[in-house]
Amino acid sequence: VERTLALIKPDAVHKANEIETILLNQGFTVLQKRRVILTAEQCSDFYSEHYGKKFFPSLVAFMTSGPIVAMVLAKENAVHQWRELIGPTNSTVAKETHSESIRALYGTNEQKNAVHGSDSEVSAEREIRFFFPNCIVE
Ligand code: ATP
C-alpha cells in the first residue's frame, strides 16, 4: 500500500475528529498522527516551492496561526485517492464542483481550505519525513 501526508490546517482543526471519521470510512488507515504548531521557518521550509509567490506571506501566517494535525495515511493509491477526497485547492470552487469533498465541507476559500495532501509519491515521502523524521520506511 502507498502512503501520503495529510494535514488538517488551522481553520479545520476543530473538526479534526469529523475529518478523521470521513477518511477512515473511505478506507484510509492512520499510521501516524501529530498535533503541532509550526514556526514560520518550518512552514516556509515545508512550502518552499511557493517561496516568492504573492500569497506566500499570508500562507505562512495562516499555517502558523494555530495548531495543525499531521497524519500519515495509508491506502492503495493513497496520494491520488486522498487528493480526490479533499477536492480542488480553492474551497469556493470545491463547493460548486465537488460538494462532497472535504474542502467543500470544511474549507472557506482559496487559502483557508481545511486540508493538505501530498501531490506526488516523491512529495509524500519528503513531507512524511518532514513531520515524522523517525518514521520507519518499509
Ligand atoms: P496543498 O499543497 O495545501 O495540498 P494544493 O496542492 O491544492 O494545496 P498549492 O497550489 O500547492 O495547492 O498551494 C498550497 C496552499 O497555498 C493551498 O492549499 C492554499 O492554502 C494556499 N494557496 C494556494 N493558492 C492560493 C492563492 N491564490 N491565494 C491564497 N492562498 C493560496
From TrEMBL:
Among the GO molecular function terms of this UniProt record, one is: hydrolase activity
Q: What is its main location?
A: other
Q: Which residue range or ranges hold the Nucleoside diphosphate kinase-like domain? A: 1-138
The superkingdom listed in its UniProt entry is Eukaryota
What GO biological process terms are annotated to this protein in UniProt?
cilium movement; CTP biosynthetic process; GTP biosynthetic process; negative regulation of oxidative stress-induced intrinsic apoptotic signaling pathway; UTP biosynthetic process
| Keyword list, A-Z | Cell projection, Cytoplasm, Hydrolase, Magnesium, Metal-binding, Nucleotide metabolism
Q: Where does ATP bind?
A: K9, F55, R83, T89, R103, N113
Which residues are named in the active-site annotation?
A: H116 (pros-phosphohistidine intermediate)
Task: Report the subcellular localization.
Answer: Cell projection, Cilium
Keyword hit for Zinc-finger? no
Task: Provide the Gene Ontology terms for cellular component.
Answer: cilium
Per the record, the similarity remark reads: Belongs to the NDK family.
Question: What name does UniProt use for this protein?
Answer: Nucleoside diphosphate kinase-like domain-containing protein
